[in-house]
Amino acid sequence: MVYLTRLEHFNAAHKLYNPAWSREKNDEVFGVCANENWHGHNFDLYITIKGEIDPDTGFLFDAKKLSRLIKEHVVNKLDHKNLNVDVPFLTGKMCSTENLAVAIWQQLQPHLPANVQLHCVKLYETQRIYVEYFG
Amino acid sequence: MVYLTRLEHFNAAHKLYNPAWSREKNDEVFGVCANENWHGHNFDLYITIKGEIDPDTGFLFDAKKLSRLIKEHVVNKLDHKNLNVDVPFLTGKMCSTENLAVAIWQQLQPHLPANVQLHCVKLYETQRIYVEYFG
Amino acid sequence: MVYLTRLEHFNAAHKLYNPAWSREKNDEVFGVCANENWHGHNFDLYITIKGEIDPDTGFLFDAKKLSRLIKEHVVNKLDHKNLNVDVPFLTGKMCSTENLAVAIWQQLQPHLPANVQLHCVKLYETQRIYVEYFG
Amino acid sequence: MVYLTRLEHFNAAHKLYNPAWSREKNDEVFGVCANENWHGHNFDLYITIKGEIDPDTGFLFDAKKLSRLIKEHVVNKLDHKNLNVDVPFLTGKMCSTENLAVAIWQQLQPHLPANVQLHCVKLYETQRIYVEYFG
Amino acid sequence: MVYLTRLEHFNAAHKLYNPAWSREKNDEVFGVCANENWHGHNFDLYITIKGEIDPDTGFLFDAKKLSRLIKEHVVNKLDHKNLNVDVPFLTGKMCSTENLAVAIWQQLQPHLPANVQLHCVKLYETQRIYVEYFG
Amino acid sequence: MVYLTRLEHFNAAHKLYNPAWSREKNDEVFGVCANENWHGHNFDLYITIKGEIDPDTGFLFDAKKLSRLIKEHVVNKLDHKNLNVDVPFLTGKMCSTENLAVAIWQQLQPHLPANVQLHCVKLYETQRIYVEYFG
Fold first, then answer.
1. DSSP letter at B120?
2. What is the mean pLDDT of chain F?
3. Cβ contacts (< 8 Å) between D81 and chain E: which residues?
4. Which residues of chain A does D14 touch, with a Cβ-Cβ cutoff of 8 Å?
5. What is the pLDDT of residues D58-85, one digit of tens each?
6. What angle is formed at CA D49 by the lines to CA D47 and CA D51, rounded to 5 degrees?
7. Could you tell me which of C114, C29, C33, C122 has the C-alpha nearest to residue C70?
8. Strand positions, DSSP E, A23-74
9. Residues of D with CB below 8 A from A8's CB?
10. Segments in chain C below pLDDT 70
11. Are B135 and B109 spatial neighbours (Cβ–Cβ below 8 Å)?
12. How many Å apart are CA C46 and CA C101, to the nearest integer?
């Protein structure tokens, strides 16, 4: 069993805002992250898969194909978007990095081939904060 | 003459959009950067000053004081903001990284002490794109 | 279950020296790290916690609050200090990165809220050497 | 139980080419990585060991000694080499990063002292692709 | 006047070998870099241009277009290649990072638009060695 | 004319303290940096030289020889040292990063060969603060 990780990037706007709460409570809980006019981040996304090495190629899975799958099913739907407004699979969810990591797992997992298991979605919101989700 | 550089960060939303143009022309020129619902970045800001070393302290200028000046006059006005909407000193300007670097110079320069010269504003929009302005 | 990691920094002096040994044996075992006049490092500290996502906030735990807890109970007691001399919770311990990581766990763990578990203390002594402790 | 990681580097040439296949099939499967005149990488190698802390030193294992073991048994055999041609322990294997990580484990593991276990070989082929092997 | 920099990557094999010299002299001068079976690197290429900001776009030059020009005229000719064998514009030159930086300048400079000046080619051979050329 | 840069590292203890001042004034001016028991840093040192390319080697100067000169004349005298106590060429100077960069220039410059000019000493005290000196 080996693990292969691929890094991709996307840039997006978001805000943290619970519509069930008042403006005041949102400001109190989320601080500047609740700015109603949005802010944004350069997200770094590490996708780790695991499985057996194919003896003919030496690959667990072709890293270029993995990159294309991540771009098709995740990055192209998030890059240069507003996460609260433009992304159907995030509708109705709090746009935290935690929820975003879980949603990315759900988007990508069905599209991986049968011999490969998704192991980890690791998502950096800034260079100092990241979330990991293992399914 | 020595040069001292301090790195600060801010996260912000923006879009590239020229209101004198049609939606179609904006999309053609700016592509995904013109998304009307905004996107965002983690900006890395390097401020470089130059001058003589003070023999009593060994400092050109106290890096902690430089950090406070950058935060007070620049970072606090940009962090977790929408650059097109929330920042008075950017009103009416295209929110490109080039214009942002020039505007940061204009904000910070008047607040540096007389024995220190601002040398460079270096602003990373992503890890692969940065702008430098030397006044 | 998701994992959230926060990076903090501190700068400190230390030396590796076992007082039960002769100067010669310390030099032989620890080499330049035993320099009696100390040396120092910029330590990078990654704290990882785990738990369930709060549906109201989308957070495992507010990363800003995590930062404040790490600063209050760990970083403020280590930053710009001499680890062998200035830090009560390290008294009588060898000031290795291994022991420092374990001690940081012991300092931080009691102050985390009940719904959050400390998962990992990861401590970089240099860009090429780090220690992880999982409790 | 603590974990200690040491980073080392090596630069090498390789190509991905299965001699049981035609030139056309190799090009189809491996793309530019099959260039018959080779290409190359700066590999970053993270070696993680685990075990108990020695109370006399505060060390799991001396990081300088770990560095020397990695250099002697791994880096010196790979650095500035052609992985397909110059490395006896890779003869007859596909020179993928997956196979290289497994081979590095096999080279290093017998030379670690009895109180230390090899935990992970993590090998970056580029800043965006890495493989982990846990034995 | 502002400066805009774009980072691109390529991976390539090379060796340092002066055909006018004996094998022994090449080994003496270039050491392991003269390995006749090649070695390789992940090169990081920073291209800096300078000029005036276009008031309609806020751009010195569209960073995406700059990326495409660098890829078309430089990266696509070097990536996954053997620098000594596969690159017509390097034929007959010593494949040092210095010569490569100068050759990249000569390849790219004629293709920049008239209102933009090439300012610097900065080329990392490893994370610890880079060359800059200003024309 | 090309520029070649080499990165080296050293770890050291220091404090900022002017012996002509009272304890109180030192604390007021230097804050935690004046801790009498020292603190320390991982310093990153970038040395840039400039000159013409040698047509026989393609080199401005052999980067391995440059590394050896930096280690012999600078790094070996600073690494795992106390900058205030252990370093003859810093005696009587304030141990600021500014003064350290100037002193490194003075140590290294006389040992470079005639066809090479020292261009810049760039010294990182932390990842957020660096000093440059151009002679």
1. E
2. 97
3. 35, 37, 39
4. none
5. 999 999 999 999 999 999 999 999 999 9
6. 170
7. C122
8. 39-51
9. 128
10. none
11. yes
12. 10
User: What is the structure's pLDDT at F71?
Assistant: 98
Q: How far is CA C52 from CA C4, C60, F68, F95, in A?
A: 11, 6, 53, 48
| Burial zone of E10 (CB within 10 Å; 0-12 exposed, 13-18 middle, 19+ buried) | buried
How high is the pLDDT of residue F35? 97
Low pLDDT (below 70) residues in chain B: none
Region at F16 (left for phi over 0; alpha for psi -120 to 50; beta for the rest): beta
Residues of chain E with pLDDT under 50: none
Give the C-alpha distances (Å, rounded to integers) separating A39 from B81, B106, D3, E4, E18. Answer: 5, 23, 38, 24, 55
User: CB–CB of B98/E2 below 8 Å?
Assistant: yes
| CB–CB contact B35 A86 (8 Å) | yes
Cβ distance C58 to A134 less than 8 Å, yes or no, reads no
Confidence of residue F124 (pLDDT cuts 50, 70, 90): very high
ipTM of the prediction: 0.97
Q: How far is CA B107 from CA A69, B7, B47, B48, B76, in A?
A: 44, 16, 12, 14, 12
**F33 is known as an active-site residue:** yes
Tokens describing residue B92: 């009416």
CA distance E3 to E50: 4
Q: What is the DSSP letter of C112?
A: S
How large is the average pLDDT for residues F88-105? Answer: 97
CA distance A87 to A103: 11
| Minimum distance, in Å, between the CA of residue E126 and any CA atom of chain F | 10
In angstroms, rounded to a whole number, what is the distance separating the alpha carbons of residues C32 and C16?
A: 9
pLDDT at residue E52, as a whole number: 98
Q: How far does the CA of residue E39 sit from the closest CA of chain B (Å)?
A: 26
- Cβ contact D117:D111 at 8 Å: no
Where does D22-116 show beta strands of DSSP type E?
Answer: 39-51, 81-82
Residue F80 annotated to the active site = yes
Cα(A14)–Cα(B37) distance, rounded to whole angstroms? Answer: 10
- Domains along the sequence of chain F with CATH: 2-133 (3.30.479.10)
Q: What angle do CA D55, D58, D62 make, to 5 degrees?
A: 120
Set of chain E residues whose Cβ sits within 8 Å of the Cβ of B98: 2, 4, 53, 58-60
Q: How far is Cα D12 from Cα D80, in angstroms, rounded to an integer?
A: 5
State residue A73's pLDDT score.
Answer: 98
The maximal CA–CA distance of chain F, rounded, in angstroms, is 61
**What is the number of other CB atoms lying within 10 angstroms of the CB of residue B60?**
23
Catalytic positions of A are 33, 80, 125
Chain E residues 24-83 with a CB less than 8 Å from chain D: 32-33, 35, 37-42, 79-82
Contact F16 B60 (CB under 8 A): no
H or E segment to which residue F8 belongs:
strand F2-14
Backbone angles phi, psi at E10, to 5 degrees: -150, 155
Sign of CA dihedral E55, E57, E59, E61: negative
Name the pairing type of β-strands A81-82 and A2-14: parallel
Type of residue numbered B86: D
Instruction: Report the distance separating Cα A18 and Cα A45, nearest Å.
Output: 25
Contact check, Cβ <8 Å, C11/F39: yes
What mean pLDDT is reported for chain D? 97
Site from D121, D129, D133 to mutate, A interface, most A CB atoms within 10 angstroms: D129
b/e map of E41-76 (b: 16 or more CB within 10 Å)?
A: bbbbbbbbbbbebeeebbbbbbbeebbebbeebbbe
Token digits for C58? 């989308």
The neighbouring-strand residues paired with D124 are D44, D130
- pTM for the model: 0.97
Q: Could you tell me the two tokens for F135?
A: 């002679």
